[in-house]
Amino acid sequence: MARLAEQGVDFAFVTLHVGLDTFRPVEVADARQHVMHSEWAELSAATAERINATWASGGRVMAVGTTAVRVLESAALAAAGIDPGQPRDFTALAPPAAHAPIAAYSGWTRLFIMPGFTFRTVDAMITNFHLPRSTLLMLVAAFTGRELIWDAYRAIGGDYRFFSFGDAMLIL
Questions:
Q1: Which of 1, 108, 125, 150 is deepest in the core (most CB within 10 A)?
Q2: Looking at residue 61, which CATH number applies to its domain?
Q3: Taking the CA atoms of the chain, what radius of gyration do you get in angstroms?
Q4: Which of helix, strand or coil describes residue 65?
Q5: How many domains does the chain have?
Q6: Which runs of E-coded beta strand occur in 11-115?
Q7: 105-109 and 169-171: which strand pairing?
Q8: What is the DSSP string of 124-152?
Q9: How far apart are CA 151 and CA 141, in angstroms?
């Protein structure tokens, strides 16, 4: 991180108290019927200011981890007057015209990001490879598009060991 900071990369931190759905597979045929458990998310005012300044200077916001993505997108929804703590189909929301200012957020989220979701904050991410039928894989598929992530999974083959340490993908 120090070497990246020397190159001008700025860092900010968020918190998500991870709940059961990070590990529980989606077991319904229609993913829109899956009910996410609540998780506590926090994004400080200082982090919100840094994100807004990043956009103002033409920079990009990169999330490290799907949990960070869920916090950032929950805060963006809350700033737009949408309660991320209420279960709903978040893919049905009208997309914003551009990055809208983000504000501090501290509260519950039940945000289930699946294909069709419009990202309001995250421009790029680093994440692991995720288990099939997981909410995390659906989040990544929403970000990349289904076909691109399926191509990546096919490329790594069928004998991949999930939950091993050190795997990661950079999604731009």
A1: 125
A2: 3.40.1780.10
A3: 16
A4: coil
A5: 1
A6: 15-17, 39-43, 62-64, 105-109
A7: unpaired
A8: EEEE----TT-HHHHHHHHHH-HHHHHHH
A9: 11
What is the full per-residue pLDDT of the chain (172 aa) written as tens digits?
899 999 989 999 999 998 876 778 888 888 888 888 889 999 999 999 999 999 999 999 999 999 999 999 999 999 999 999 988 888 888 888 778 899 999 999 999 999 999 999 999 999 988 878 888 899 999 999 988 988 887 887 766 766 666 688 899 9
CB count within 10 Å of CB 51 equals: 24
The SS3 assignment for 4 reads: helix
Q: Quick one: which of 129, 113, 118, 106 has its CA closest to 36?
A: 113
Q: Is the pTM of this model over 0.85?
A: yes
| Residue range(s) defining the domain that contains residue 16 | 2-171
